[in-house]
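Why show two proteins at once? Because comparison is the fastest way to build intuition. When a single record is shown, students tend to memorize it. When two are placed side by side, the eye starts asking what differs. So, the first record is below.
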Amino acid sequence: MIFDKSEFLSRLEGDELLGSEIIEMFLQEYPKLLDGIHQAVEQRNASLLERAAHSLMGSVGDVAAPQALEHARALEQMARKGDWEGANAALVRLEVALDQLAREMRNSEIRVA
């Protein structure tokens, strides 16, 4: 599942206006978090990758995006192991998941301004 809208709204007690605001903030902020992950992978900086992946995990967890959460968690674990080959592949999977998530959020019934 890309975006668990019912879980997301249940966390907000059904407040679609708040949900719309949170989605809008997420859509504005996740590219910055993803850029940090890209930089960490390019620099092979394990501590930076671990922190950047952890930050993204929090964001995708907040918006009930289990697939992106799984890929961000994998990146965090790869940073701990210094698995750069795996990190490159996981980053591609994360990008695909985030693209799908953003598309699904924009097309959801929760209107984004």
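Second record. Ask yourself what differs from the first in the token line.
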Amino acid sequence: MLPNSALLTVHGWGHTSLFLSSCVDAAVAAHPLAIAVPAPGTACEQDVVPFTAPASASWTNGRAELRARILAELMPDAVLRAIN
């Protein structure tokens, strides 16, 4: 019903997926930059299943870096300074 829209399925826990799946993060980042939507039937997996083991330091650092890059692309500098 929404023109130029797509459904992106996430196999994972919780009610949100941002910063929990690099596959989802890439699709979300691609949309405003290239007006690209995932191909029909695209499904993403969560990178880490919650409640099984602590996240590794490399995973945590990588997620923080990706979050910063996405926010830098999507938000004006004034907004970023206000939330940081």
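One difference worth noting in the second protein: The chain has three helices and two strands.
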